[in-house]
Automatic annotation (TrEMBL):
Residues 19-279 form the Pyruvate carboxyltransferase domain. The keyword Transferase applies. Belongs to the alpha-IPM synthase/homocitrate synthase family. Gene3D superfamilies: 1.10.238.260, Aldolase class I. GO terms for molecular function: homocitrate synthase activity. This is Pyruvate carboxyltransferase. InterPro entries: AIPM/Hcit_synth_CS, Aldolase_TIM, LeuA/HCS_post-cat, PYR_CT. Pfam families: HCS_D2, HMGL-like. Keywords: Pyruvate, Transferase. The keyword Secreted does not apply. GO terms for biological process: carboxylic acid metabolic process. It catalyses: acetyl-CoA + 2-oxoglutarate + H2O = (2R)-homocitrate + CoA + H(+). It comes from the Archaea.
Amino acid sequence: MMRRYDEMPKIKLPNAKDIKISDTTIRDGCQMPGIVMKKSHKLKIFEYLHDMGVEKLETFIYNDRDKDAARAMMDYSYDFPEVTGWARANPADIDEVLKVGGIRETGILMSISDSHIYDKMGLKSYEEAEKKYLNALQYAVDHGLKTRCHIEDTSRANYAFVYPFIRKCIEIDPHTIIRVCDTLGYGVPFPEEEEPYGIPIVVKKLKEIGVKHIEMHVHDDFGLGVANTLAGLWYGADWANLTFLGIGERAGNSELEKIMAFLITRVEGFDKYDLRTVTEFAQYMEDEVGLRVPRNKAIVGKNIFSHESGIHTAGIIKNPFTYEPFPPELVGGKRNLMIGQTSGTEVVRLKAEEALNELLGIEVHVEKSDSRIKSIHNEIQKMYDAEERRSSVSDEEMKDYVRKYFLYQVDGWEEELEERKAKKKLNLTLVNPEFMPLDGIPAAATSLTDKSVKKVKNGSSKKK
């Protein structure tokens, strides 16, 4: 049987025990047009990353603001995320990293495609590019730094140059991390595809030539960031470099929260990560950094655990597993059942029940077959039929419907009540307060349906 989350089989990733996550939200994410991160923002992001269990982050070290934020993060004395630097391929940039005491690792940008070498960098040949990059790598190693070689634009590069160049990189630093940068999102996750596009074949061949550590850094220009990152991990990469909410240049990067949620819920061996603060984290980025998180954003969007349509709400009410990929609590979210143009009577019943509980202060139960539920549903649908409404029905509006149909008289109500009273001997005062004397207090009620009212012990009302 597969009717609960814990009954679903998990994927066995070949090298799951070796996989780690690094974050570049405060480096690549800062390059997103219109985003300005203050020191306080960076420190708060650092705290959230720590709560999530992220092993490493990278940051710019270009100016005093960058250095001050980096030092402040290290002052927390957290074991993770490790604070690392980022540099262009020149000794001067590496010197800036060295000025921040405590940083033990830096990435070095090594632009590898023809357009980057010849047009952006203005270099004359592959040989000139190779010399520049290897000299910078040697300089970092000579000064005691662990290194990452950021092989920029690998998915548009000439691999007759790329593979021999990377062999020389690992000769200088056998433990360097080779970052596969799919800079424009040209990569694809298909194992049959050759270089430069095929992420699986690139990762496999890097392993074959002796690369010990491979990191995926994938942009999302074609919407394949997460797929390409996972393909890299599946075929042997042991690091994923990500940004929270996928922020970054153009279409951004592979999303930290998506990769982490997939690993936790779908793959064996990732209990080390914790997503309970990510919904709060997303709200922080919206409120303080100025991002706008789409309502349907996977993992953290406000609609992720919101349900309106009749089929879906009925399924959720009976078993949330039916239409939710994981429990809201996993990501600090909250389930929200809504009433709109596609809603059925089951969610109207539930919302009416909730409203009655709040209005009366006693626990009640309403049957789906109750004619008043059908009346409320019909009135709501008439409103949408007339195209008078473009939003869902709020909880406050639902209380008004409940007051109208359950607590106050409406046309035809007296006749219906008399008929029901004769059949079921219903105590009218417990259904409609208007019939109740001012000093009359009902003993208790657990149902506002055709069922008889049940009393609890000592005649006291059963509170919610």
